[in-house]
Backbone:
């Protein structure tokens, strides 16, 4: 085997790919993760509601139901182990009329069948006591105390770091253009840069999951790309709701929610629009106004005065309406996790565990005797006590240099984000790992400083620093070369 | 951990903080500390390398750095302690501040008086809810100004500017002089929010079109900005279908307003005015929290640094008077915004003040051949006529102590008629 051959290739470094990679890193095998993006979690993982669903919504007996409930139960300890922000804040599913009430009663039965604990129907009075900012027109709600919130991309980063510490190799800007099974039983995976070969192929390709599957299997899958747009409001000392508040779900998804995030922001969204291009994560004026209209039903006092940003993500919906997880029926050595839309984030740890187990059996892998333990991540400076801050600065004075004012992120934390096993390479990469630039000024102050640190740490020229990889360059040129004709207008 | 006591702590060493410090020292305050988060004093003036500063105060046309240097030199002559690269993290109502720096770690500073002089920040894209992609190439005008003037980098080659605030206008000229093509300046309101002299000197002189009553309705480009769609808006600021104009550009600069940076003030329990987004203050620039003063752009956004300095000299002197227990106590008169007036500062005046009080505000629309009228209980106190009042230029009317004698009520209204 040459060095472009590896035991296992995972396509995609979203939450599912990262979870699979981490579980595989516990076995004696070489693992390579390929991603078309320039960083981890560039697809739906970075742009979703961040909810660890309890599992009341999925139809009993489906893979969605199975993995959701199992995955959700793994989250708390996993988040603790990896130092990822997670909070079991609970959720409410609101009913505004008798029909809604029937829906939530059915959801309760469904949830109980799926094994969700502590579900309860609350009446209006109890609800308004719990959440006084709710629309008083609410008649009842399903209370879901086991529903939780998590930072989805931070979970992916931690899973990937753990995998990398245990030998998994990650390669970015490698968009898989085609896959095929060769006569020797190995797969060839062609990207714009290389042809890679492997014994086992793991398809966690998110929006491209069906395209890759259809190259290897006769049982064709059809994927619909469903975009969800959001509002993200500023952190506040007290948000209008303590819990995630849903409206009744429909065929298009779980409806518009209003939810606190683990970082104390407030999230409104998503829309559900079927689009042609899975990479089209633009927001639209009609989508944004739709969110406001619907969210106002949950929260009549809605105000977007403190809006920080709007974003959108694209969920990978299969027409079969369920996840595809497991070995591909007609292609030995190909394992798949396709159509991992909501509750995909909740399900990812369980999917990762299952797929890795199946692959280990298939390749007769043995467990590594020793794994590298995940280093305890430092508490963010933002959350440290005075004494912890003093101590941190004594050990590393760059903790005393505040780079992002809004989110209180220090130079030490930005450098660490770049030096992590799968480190940040772009301004957005730093932003998602540290929150620098996530605040109310949206990087107005810290952007030039973050860019300078990236340039210093990675040894690239400042004008080569990108917002988010690829051609997303921040700057065109230095002012002197620019004037000398380094430009082409007119 | 370092813990220290000072008479006056000034947060921010921009033009406001420097003026407040100079004034407090000149009033005899020995124990004085200015804390600045940047590595040098001077604030935003450091990156404002164009001229036009200081016409009122120095009767000269200075660049931003030159203007700042005069105050820095003065502060240094007065041996005022300025601690740079130090960020204040919290201020409590009992006037204790925690700060952090790489050289000293965490510090707790107890002050008899605090002057808030943190300045303001720019409204980012999120605050505008502009739809489209989230590509590279979208900057607030001030961030672009920093890249060009302090770091020596051009953010892009073909530029559209959204908003006609002064920094955007200045950057239209700056980018043009530096070799970029500025395609248009887009303003959602039917009038510019910038100074008239900047419209003339930065747009007209360079043939850059200004589209009033227009806005950006879409942003395109997956990685780097590729273009924006601009449309005319109706009188409710909704885009009018069929009026779309496409601009092929790689850079969008936002100059859509400034927001006083009052996070520390809020933490200290300071009451914030919804009209100015700054503290509610009296004629001494004292906030609702005893011994905490505010001045400059953190109090309300100014057009001219000369006015910032003027206001901050008064705030520094008032903080010094507070420390020396020389505060006036008398019934307070409330100042209210009337027709055509938004965000009058100060909001309260001590009825026995012995100094003239400048009332500053923004006209809420364009008024021609009008007058500012200050009245109290039906009695006209002052009338000031002008050819034009616009939201882009702060209006000012001065009340003399004698205007405040024997008032018929405890409420003063400022209006334009």
Residues:
């Amino acid at each position: 085997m040459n060095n472009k051959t590896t035991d296992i290739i995972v396509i995609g470094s979203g939450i599912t790919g990262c979870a699979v990679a981490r579980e595989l890193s516990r076995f004696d095998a070489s693992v390579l993760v390929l991603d078309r993006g320039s960083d981890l979690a560039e697809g739906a993982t970075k742009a979703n509601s961040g909810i660890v669903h309890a599992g009341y919504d999925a139809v009993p007996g489906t893979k969605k139901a199975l993995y959701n409930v199992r995955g959700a139960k793994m989250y708390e300890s996993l988040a603790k182990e990896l130092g990822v922000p997670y909070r079991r804040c609970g959720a409410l599913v609101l009913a505004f009329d008798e029909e809604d009430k029937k829906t939530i009663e059915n959801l309760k039965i469904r949830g109980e069948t799926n094994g969700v604990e502590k579900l309860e129907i609350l009446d209006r009075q109890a609800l308004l006591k719990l959440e006084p900012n709710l629309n008083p027109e609410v008649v009842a709600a399903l209370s879901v105390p086991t529903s939780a919130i998590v930072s989805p991309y931070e979970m992916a980063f931690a899973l990937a770091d753990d995998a990398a510490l245990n030998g998994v190799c990650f390669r970015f800007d490698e968009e898989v253009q085609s896959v095929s099974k060769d006569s020797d039983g190995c797969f060839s995976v062609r990207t714009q840069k290389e042809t890679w070969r492997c014994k086992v192929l793991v398809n966690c390709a998110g929006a491209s999951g069906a395209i890759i599957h259809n190259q290897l299997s006769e049982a064709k899958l059809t994927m619909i790309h469903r975009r969800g747009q959001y509002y993200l409001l500023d952190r506040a000392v007290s948000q209008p709701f303590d819990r995630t508040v849903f409206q009744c779900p429909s065929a298009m998804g779980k409806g518009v929610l209003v939810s606190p995030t683990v970082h104390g922001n407030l999230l409104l969204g998503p829309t559900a629009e079927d689009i042609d291009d899975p990479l089209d994560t633009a927001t639209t004026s009609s989508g944004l106004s739709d969110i406001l209209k619907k969210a106002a039903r949950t929260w009549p006092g809605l105000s977007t005065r403190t809006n920080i940003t709007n974003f959108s993500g694209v969920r990978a919906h299969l027409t079969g309406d369920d996840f595809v997880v497991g070995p591909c029926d007609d292609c030995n050595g190909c394992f798949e996790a396709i159509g991992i839309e909501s509750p995909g984030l909740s399900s990812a740890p369980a999917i990762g565990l299952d797929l890795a187990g199946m692959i280990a059996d298939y390749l007769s892998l043995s467990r590594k005797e020793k794994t590298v333990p995940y280093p305890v991540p430092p508490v963010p400076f933002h959350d440290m006590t005075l004494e912890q801050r003093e101590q941190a600065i004594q050990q590393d004075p760059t903790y005393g240099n505040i780079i992002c004012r809004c989110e209180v992120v220090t130079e030490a934390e930005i450098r660490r984000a770049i030096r992590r096993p799968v480190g940040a390479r772009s301004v957005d990469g730093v932003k998602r790992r540290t929150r620098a630039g996530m605040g109310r000024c949206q990087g107005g102050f810290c952007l030039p400083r973050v860019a300078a640190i990236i340039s210093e740490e990675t040894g690239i020229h400042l004008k080569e620093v990108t917002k988010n990889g690829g051609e997303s360059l921040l700057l065109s040129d230095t002012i002197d070369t620019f004037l000398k004709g380094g430009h082409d207008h007119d | 951990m370092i813990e220290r006591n000072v008479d006056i702590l000034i947060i921010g060493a921009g033009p406001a903080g420097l003026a407040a410090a100079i004034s407090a020292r000149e009033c005899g305050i020995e124990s004085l500390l200015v804390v600045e988060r940047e590595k040098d004093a001077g604030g935003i003036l450091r990156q404002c390398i164009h001229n036009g500063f200081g016409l009122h105060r120095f009767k000269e046309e200075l660049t931003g750095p030159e203007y700042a240097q005069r105050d820095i030199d003065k502060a240094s002559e007065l041996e005022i302690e300025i601690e740079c690269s130090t960020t204040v993290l919290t201020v409590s109502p009992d006037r204790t501040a925690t700060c952090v720096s790489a050289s000293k770690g965490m510090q707790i500073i107890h002050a008899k008086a605090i002057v808030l002089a943190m300045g303001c920040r720019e409204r980012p894209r999120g605050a505008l809810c502009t739809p489209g992609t989230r590509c590279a190439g979208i900057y607030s005008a001030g961030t672009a100004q920093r890249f060009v003037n302090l770091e020596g980098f051009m953010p892009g080659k073909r530029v559209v500017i959204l908003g006609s605030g002064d920094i955007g206008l200045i950057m239209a000229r700056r980018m043009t002089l530096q070799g970029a093509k500025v395609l248009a300046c887009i303003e959602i309101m039917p009038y510019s929010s910038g100074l008239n002299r900047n419209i003339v000197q930065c747009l007209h002189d360079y043939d850059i079109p200004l589209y009033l009553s227009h806005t950006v309705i879409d942003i395109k480009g997956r990685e780097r900005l590729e273009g924006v769609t601009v449309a005319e808006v109706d009188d409710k600021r909704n885009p009018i279908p069929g009026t779309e104009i496409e601009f092929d550009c790689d850079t969008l600069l936002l100059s859509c307003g400034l927001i006083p940076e009052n996070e520390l003030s809020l933490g200290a329990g300071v009451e914030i005015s919804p009209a100015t987004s700054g503290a509610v203050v009296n004629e001494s620039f004292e906030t609702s929290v005893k011994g905490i003063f505010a001045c400059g752009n953190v109090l309300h956004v100014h057009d001219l640094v000369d006015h910032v300095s003027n206001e901050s000299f008064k705030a520094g002197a008032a903080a010094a008077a507070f420390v020396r227990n020389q505060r006036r106590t008398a019934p307070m008169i409330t100042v209210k915004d009337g027709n055509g007036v938004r965000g009058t500062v100060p909001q309260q005046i001590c009825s026995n003040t012995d100094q003239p009080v400048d009332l500053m505000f923004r006209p809420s629309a364009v008024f021609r051949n009008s007058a500012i009228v200050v009245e109290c209980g039906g009695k006209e106190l002052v009338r000031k006529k002008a050819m034009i009042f616009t939201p882009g230029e702060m209006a000012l009317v001065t009340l003399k102590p004698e205007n405040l004698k024997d008032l018929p009520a405890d409420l003063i209204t400022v209006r334009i008629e």
